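Data card: per-record layout.
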Amino acid sequence: MSDISFGTDGWRASIAEDYTFDNVRRCAQGFAAYLKANFPDELARGVVIGGDKRFRSEDFAAAAAEVLVGNDIPVHFCGGGIPTPIISFGVVERRALGAINITASHNPPTDNGFKVRDFNGGAIDPAGLKAIEARIPPTPTDIPRLDFDAAVKAGLIRPYDPIPAYDARIRSLVDVEAIKAAGFTVLVDNMWGNGAGHLSRLIGGGATKVVEYHAERNPIFPEMKRPEPIPPNVDAGLAKGRELGADVVSIMDGDADRCGLGDEHGAFVDQLRVYALLVMYLLEVRGERGPIIKTISTTSMLDKLGARYGVKVVNTGVGFKYVAPAMLEHNGLIGGEESGGYAFRGHVPERDGILANLYLLDLMRRTGKKPTGLLAMLFDLVGGPHYYNRIDTRVKDNARKQAARARLDAAQPHTIGGLRVTDKITLDGYKFALEDGGWLLIRFSGTEPLIRVYCETMHEDRVQAILQDGLQLAGIG
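The structure for this 477-residue chain is written out next.
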């Protein structure tokens, strides 16, 4: 049997190679043992289980449910095609101990995954993930299981639809009726994933026209390499938005926890700018106050907005296993990361691509501005445009990875991309602060065999030079 390691956001692997029913059962047994060790008197609260629209996700979810009830832990079963944020909200609504979510999020179509969530509906912290890993049995032999249909008849697996309660929560956070009446034309690119139909249900049927795209279930994800809401995966959706003459393109990834944005011209708005727009919306437009939680891989515009409005900015490692605990510890107003995942106070400490897109639409409604006008408003607040890009390099060879780490440990560059280096930060990866307030970050992905090189700068003409210097520093250029 293969070793199973929980990375930045759970375990992901290639279907039929490592991602098998036996290995899913092993993961479920590790989680069940963790719950029994930590909540022995509260097991009756149960666990929410659901999955995405990938190949046989609902069957993998059922296999996990059989193991949980075999361990005397009841299951609130959502089935397949349920967005990650709705599964997480279901934990809170049911007062469950946590959740198992069968999804590989934005990974290639050949993969599937196994996410776990705590009783807050948020990601489990690194120590908790290690405790679950330690309880995963080495083989599937003797894992207790109860047949799915028998467990349903016995009331141990309870069919559960979390959507009505989720909708009520969303309506308490944003005026969906006002967005419905705003008269926008919205192209929604669901990337063949779980987000399909949710924006139509919430804001369709009025003056606002909602057109769903890539809304069917298709686990090979045509027209994109993977359902990750960045170019080139979003190019077909952006083109459809231009064809339609849409005011905005609202994008969600495969499990609908990430948000992407296209402007009124069908141009992509990068996820760092989207995060800054959301912070501007909460602080400037809604007048709210509270800490901003951000991973070190996201925008320095948040530091400028935090200083302008007198709110604290908390930096974390990359991944919601760091962001979610920080949201709870600091009562964060918003938490987010470079990948396009954003969480909000008053909801669950989990990325929510549905709510993020609604907030962006509400920002348009309240200001009367389309996305390019919103960016102009943002840049006025932060001193001008900030430019971002990222290069991912696949590196499976462990020796090559170790050589890159050694090079980066020793690296003390004076300049990067022609800009003076002012600091080196090793909170999660290797981040080099630059004289213009920008930065270069090099880190090893926790979900895939990738070395990621990211940068942000106020010098558009320096972006590629900064990235190339980063590749050279890691020895992969």
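Known properties of this structure: The chain has a mean pLDDT of 96. The domain at 11-165 is CATH 3.40.120.10 (Alpha-D-Glucose-1,6-Bisphosphate; Chain A, domain 3).

See the next section for split statistics.
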